[in-house]
């Protein structure tokens, strides 16, 4: 298991991992640093913590982009620390963190990756203790870092981490490079507008939750794809288009489109939040 650092700007780095094609963020200020996401289990989280310590000995704060296990199950390896997240990230982890853990471990077992399954089972999900609703401005060693909730997207609690002086945005899974976006807990009709909010920050570099860092033109292209998926979902669930016809127009494979359509059907039957 190994990772590599990618310098995005002065004092702003991404750490790339082959496991899950994951990308973690690090912002370094004067005597403080901010770690964006903590990986998927305690062993992988400990590796990340050690890698950060090779770069800086400064005390850290944690920001979690959302509640999914692969982004937050390594948090215990960074304690004691302030852990920032959206308030619904806290709610979801408190209500369903252990259920999520057990489900993921079963999936790894089913794929004969029992060593990883045991690492997942060893996790006791850590609840974030610094909660935000819309926007929060942090000072990371005198360096301004904005945490922003831009709307529903990959989940209902995605936040982005914006480093204005560097023109860098850590987007979590609102942006995906190297694979289609994941719609299992998504809000497909809202997601394009949320990504438009990222574009509105005029970033020089966007670091996705999975995949290599990208530029804003890539994000515009993905926003266009998400817009088409939203249109196709709307047409299918209102019987204006068959699934077969929608698939012929889809930028993503059949299973991805089917998941997105299922999420829209579910959201139509749920009361608004």
Protein described:
With 273 residues, the protein is α/β, with parallel strands linked by helices. The protein has one domain (4-215): Ribonuclease Z/Hydroxyacylglutathione hydrolase-like (Metallo-beta-lactamase, Chain A). Helices cover 38% and strands 23% of the residues. The chain has eight helices and twelve strands. The strands form two sheets. The protein has a seven-stranded mixed beta sheet with strand order 1-2-3-4-5-6-7. Strands 8-9-10-11-12 form a five-stranded mixed beta sheet, covered by helices on one side. Strand 4 (33-36), helix 1 and strand 5 form a beta-alpha-beta unit. Helix 5 packs antiparallel against helix 6 and helix 6 crosses helix 8. It starts with a strand and ends in a 5-residue tail after the last helix. The model has no long low-confidence stretch (mean pLDDT 97).
Describe the global form: globular
- Percent strand: 15-25%
Question: What percentage of residues falls in helices of 4 or more residues?
Answer: 25-40%
- CATH uppermost class: Alpha Beta
**CATH topology annotation:** Metallo-beta-lactamase, Chain A
Task: Give the helix/strand layout.
Elements: E1 4-9, E2 12-16, E3 23-28, E4 33-36, H1 42-55, E5 60-63, H2 69-72, E6 83-86, H3 87-110, H4 114-121, E7 130-132, E8 135-140, E9 143-148, E10 160-163, E11 168-176, H5 191-200, E12 205-210, H6 216-237, H7 243-249, H8 254-268
Helix pairs in contact: 3-4, 5-6, 6-7, 6-8
């Amino acid at each position: 298991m190994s990772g590599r650092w990618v310098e995005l700007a002065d004092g702003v780095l991404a750490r790339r991992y082959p496991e899950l094609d994951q990308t973690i963020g690090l912002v370094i200020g004067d005597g403080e640093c901010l770690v964006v996401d903590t990986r998927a289990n305690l062993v992988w989280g400990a590796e990340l913590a050690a890698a950060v310590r090779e770069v800086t000995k400064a005390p850290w704060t944690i920001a979690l982009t959302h509640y999914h296990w692969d982004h937050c199950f390594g948090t215990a390896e960074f304690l004691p620390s302030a852990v920032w997240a959206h308030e619904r990230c806290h709610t979801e982890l408190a209500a369903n963190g252990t259920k999520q853990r057990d489900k993921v471990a079963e999936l790894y077992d089913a794929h004969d990756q029992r060593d990883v399954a045991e690492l997942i089972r060893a996790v006791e999900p850590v609840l974030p203790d610094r909660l935000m609703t819309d926007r929060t401005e942090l000072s990371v060693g005198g360096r301004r870092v904005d945490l922003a909730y831009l709307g529903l997207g990959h989940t209902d609690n995605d936040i982005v981490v914006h480093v204005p002086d560097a023109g860098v945005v850590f987007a979590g899974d609102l942006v995906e490079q190297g694979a289609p976006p994941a719609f299992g807990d998504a809000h497909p009709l809202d997601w394009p507008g949320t990504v438009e909010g990222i574009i509105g920050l005029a970033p020089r570099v966007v670091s996705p939750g999975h995949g290599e860092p990208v530029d804003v033109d890539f994000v515009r292209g993905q926003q266009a794809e998400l817009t088409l998926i939203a249109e196709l979902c709307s047409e299918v669930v209102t019987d204006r288009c068959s699934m077969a016809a929608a698939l012929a127009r889809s930028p993503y494979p059949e299973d991805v489109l089917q998941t997105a359509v299922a999420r829209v059907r579910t959201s139509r039957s749920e009361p608004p939040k």
